[in-house]
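Whiteboard transcription, Tuesday session. T.W. wrote the structure tokens on the left side:
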């Protein structure tokens, strides 16, 4: 599928379906990146469905507490909890997963929403040595998702419906094709994460690349989950929304045409954060009448749509497998729990 600029504008001006609802009583929902924007609004929708536990995973304790208060006041739901998580620090991710293993119990819905978008040309490494967007949006997102598979599968086995892992991707994946050097490499992440590669010419595509990698992860994981495993990994685009995702752009002290262009685009095209959050909610609780198609699917406008032609191509599938294999190799060095999870819950795809 191709998505032109005109198609994108028409999409943004199209009416959205109402938020999907479900009975979440007795269930546990975890939303990563829940203190602002679409993550906060999605959490409010989940709270109205009365889950037994709604866990908000946030980097900032102060902002997390403010979100917790706002959700409880607007929804009158008292089953909310704040857990601290910093995706820019692998140690924080593994500590979070260890805590969930001890205190979280079964997990029915995981929404991996946290992400960062830095202005083009900005190279910022994390304390772990990875470029920040690559680690936060991709590697740490994949790490936590994999570490929580045992809790997701356990919940699915006890429930009448498979658990859901929601990976927030984006429409921007339609407009990015990695360079030949990256897409043909057996270690594309090593190239993308190297300081030598992270020059302005390449970094202006980094956010879009990270959303493509998110989609690769959901599809590659689906390929490796046995059909009988009660877990569905679903990718979703929230559309172009007002959110805190682009706050770093506006915080730049210097004048730039990019900030003006972004402000104009938001004024005429952007949905509200609540409207965007409906897509996350549908990916988490919708489409239960056709669960098999939801597995590895891409949700947009409250329905499944076809992904970009590159993703479906032979070259795209090969890059997807290379990214998966390299991701597992990298994460094995981060946590000794990754290899057993891969061995116990996943299979070699056909």
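and on the right, the sequence the group agreed on:
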């Amino acid at each position: 599928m191709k998505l032109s600029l005109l198609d994108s504008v028409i999409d943004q001006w199209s009416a959205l379906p109402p938020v999907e609802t479900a009975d979440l009583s007795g269930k546990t929902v975890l939303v990563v990146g829940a203190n602002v924007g679409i993550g906060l609004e999605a959490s409010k929708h989940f709270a109205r469905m009365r889950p037994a536990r709604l866990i908000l995973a946030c980097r900032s304790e102060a902002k997390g507490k403010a979100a917790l208060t706002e959700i409880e006041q607007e929804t009158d739901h008292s089953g909310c909890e704040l857990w601290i998580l910093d995706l820019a620090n692998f140690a924080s991710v593994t500590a979070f997963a260890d805590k969930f293993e001890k205190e979280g119990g079964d997990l029915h819905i995981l929404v991996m929403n946290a992400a960062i978008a830095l202005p083009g040309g900005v190279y910022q490494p994390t304390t772990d040595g990875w470029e920040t967007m690559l680690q936060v949006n991709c590697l740490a997102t994949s790490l936590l998702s994999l570490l929580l598979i045992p809790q997701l599968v356990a919940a699915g086995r006890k429930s009448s419906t498979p658990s859901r892992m929601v990976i927030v991707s984006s429409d921007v994946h339609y407009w990015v094709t990695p360079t030949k050097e990256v897409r043909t490499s057996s270690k594309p992440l090593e190239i993308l994460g190297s300081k030598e590669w992270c020059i302005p010419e390449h970094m202006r595509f980094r956010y879009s690349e990270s959303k493509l990698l998110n989609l690769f992860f959901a599809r590659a994981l689906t390929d490796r989950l046995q059909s009988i495993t009660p877990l569905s990994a679903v990718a979703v685009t929230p559309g172009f929304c007002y959110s805190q995702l682009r706050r770093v752009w506006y915080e730049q002290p210097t004048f730039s045409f990019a900030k003006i262009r972004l402000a104009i685009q938001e004024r005429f095209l952007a949905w509200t954060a609540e409207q965007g959050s409906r897509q996350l909610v549908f990916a988490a609780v919708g489409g239960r009448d056709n669960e098999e198609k939801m597995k590895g699917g891409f949700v947009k406008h409250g329905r499944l749509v076809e992904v970009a032609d590159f993703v479906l191509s032979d070259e795209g599938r090969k890059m997807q497998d290379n990214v998966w294999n390299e991701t597992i190799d990298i994460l094995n060095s981060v946590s000794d729990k990754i290899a057993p999870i891969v061995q116990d819950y996943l299979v070699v795809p056909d």
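Someone added at the bottom: The chain has a mean pLDDT of 92.
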